[in-house]
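Mods, move this if it's the wrong board.
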Amino acid sequence: MRTILTILLLFLFVSCYSQQLGQVTFSGGANFSYFGFVTDQGVLIRISDDGKILEFGTEALADRSNFYARKLQPFMGRIDYYGPKDDSIFRGKIKSIGTCFFTYYDEYQKKSKAGKIKTIGNQLIDYFEEYEDKTLQGKIKTAGALSIDYYRSYENESYRGKLKMIGSLPITYYSVFDDK
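Not the wrong board. Structure tokens:
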């Protein structure tokens, strides 16, 4: 009985302290900027739709208004990078930020995914393959349990390649023909 309780508590602890997709940011109201993953230490990791780390740090609430500043504060914890003795595809890339570890696709798995982020902590990141729609190739397809969908090349020309849905949350754009 004691071991079952211990396993249950361990499962709850691990599931509570994990990484998750915390932000999706648009600039100008319609142009996608980045995904933001929040770690268990409160570090925000911003990555582009093609799987590159743009920046990381902590958010600071603006002094005079009730909004967060765009620029992140530097993370004061441990940051590890892959060194010169590691595989050439990983050299110089971030290995860990605090307790959040990163893995990358290597050249032996898929050529189109080589060097892209594979996991952020326990969140698996997958990408559209080269045999899929040309406007989607190389973009993030799933982030953990969330599927990410984009407008395809056969849809409205002004929406092609833009985010369409994240998980079950649809993203709506307004065209010049929509009523105001």
